[in-house]
Write a structure and sequence with these properties.
Helix content: 25-40%
Largest sheet: 10 strands, mixed
Order of helices and strands: EHHHEEEEEEHEHEHEHEHHEHEHEEE
Distance between the termini: 37 Å
Bound molecules: S-adenosyl-L-homocysteine
Length: 374
């Protein structure tokens, strides 16, 4: 393992058919790929020399041609509430973050899909960093691999009697559906019974609303979907989540219901960040209820997490509870997300990493992600 790029093939993140093809190319039989996956993902072993039930000659070929390369840990922070945040390096200058959130009966790993983000949501710290690049499938899978290993080495605050990581959410830095090409293979490994073997209900992809990619996702893989809605009308959503100008709320919801139909009727979670005086009035709650009522929707209210330079404030607890109650009274399912890891800037929207080179990317005809920070 090393953090330095090399000519050898990184086996982490390779979907099963590709791993089988690679193994066949080395002159071994396909079942060797299954054994290899067992070592890699079940036992978390990254050193080929230690994979003792593989033939010696095969191990030697692996050492020559392949590697298991994970992002390097730059820093680890522990929150008073048990939450942990790792800063990882993508290459010499760039960093991204992942967060582990232990609860009584589950352990959730929140992973990143990009270094920075191009979507420019006005209330998100990651957006202020601008966009640098997509993470590779290996870097996405590598976060889970690394976290498992780190948690085993330092098992403080883990959920009793459970695997350390029971849930994975793509809610860290980046817009996962803007990195579709690498995110989907990574998801396949999370779900593969020879991979991390997570149930589809326990892997959640969160998107700001890239409508065409929601349709593509529905065709290709079955995971839980969360959508960052944040406003009950287009005028406000255009301001908070600028991709809404391209894909307005009615189109987005249609895509969500389609996704849900394709996935056998599980509901979509709508995330709604609570911003004082912006989107938190009872009238807005009622408008939100009208929008979603009668559909397979759950609403997760997220108290806004402030970061330096933001113009927003968190709604008061009273306003959040009132908002939730308006939704509940109208028959919707609504919960309030408990904020975790705030003391180490690990809460939703606080992940900033370190993005040195900012790149402007084009999404369709509109340009997003111009770095506006000085
Ligand atoms: N780009 C994806 C996933 C990352 S963010 C998305 O937009 O869904 C995960 C959730 O945290 C999103 O719902 C996002 O809108 C929310 N979030 C972003 N900034 C936040 C902040 N400062 N406080 C609270 N939640 C925030």
């Amino acid at each position: 393992m090393s953090g330095v790029a090399s000519e050898r093939l990184n086996l982490l993140g390779l979907p099963r058919p590709e791993l089988e093809a690679f193994v066949a190319g080395l002159g071994s039989q396909a079942f060797r790929a299954r054994q290899l996956m067992g070592w890699l993902y079940k036992r978390g072993e990254g050193r080929f020399e230690h994979m003792t039930d593989l033939a010696k000659a095969f191990r030697a070929r692996l050492v020559e041609t392949a590697e298991v390369r994970v992002p390097e840990v730059v820093a680890v922070q522990h929150s008073a509430d048990g939450t942990r945040k790792w800063k990882l390096s993508a290459d010499t200058a760039q960093a991204f973050e992942m967060v582990y959130i232990p609860e009584d009966h589950r352990g959730t790993l929140c992973i990143s899909s990009q270094v920075g983000c191009a979507l420019d949501c006005s209330f998100c710290a990651t957006a202020q960093q601008g966009f640098n690049r997509n993470l590779s499938a290996a870097e996405i899978v590598g976060q889970v691999w690394l976290a498992q290993r780190e948690l085993a080495a330092d098992p403080r605050d883990l959920p009793a009697g459970e695997r350390s990581i029971t849930n994975v959410v793509l809610m860290g830095m980046g817009e996962p559906l803007a990195n579709f090409r690498n995110v989907v293979p990574a998801l396949r490994i999370l779900l593969d019974d020879l991979g991390f073997d997570l149930s589809r209900r326990r892997v959640t992809l969160s998107t700001s609303g890239l409508v065409p990619q929601i349709y593509r996702l529905a065709e290709q893989i079955n995971v839980a979907l969360a959508v960052s809605l944040h406003a009950p009308d287009d005028e406000l959503r255009n301001e908070l989540v600028p991709i809404n100008r391209k894909h307005p709320i009615n189109e987005l919801l249609e895509a969500c219901w389609h996704y849900n139909d394709e996935q056998n009727g599980r509901s979509v979670t709508f995330e709604y960040v609570m911003l004082a005086g912006v989107n938190d009035s009872p009238a807005q709650a009622r408008a939100l209820a009208r929008l979603l009522r009668g559909n397979p929707a759950k609403i997760n209210l997220i108290p806004f997490n402030p970061f330096p330079g933001t113009r927003y404030r968190r709604s008061s607890s009273e306003a959040i509870v009132r908002f939730r109650d308006e939704l509940l009274q109208r028959g919707l399912i609504a919960t309030i997300r408990r904020t975790r890891g705030e003391d180490i800037d690990a809460a939703c929207g606080q992940l900033a990493g370190r993005v040195i080179d900012r790149t402007t990317v084009r999404l369709g005809s509109k340009t997003f992600g111009l770095a506006v920070q000085t």
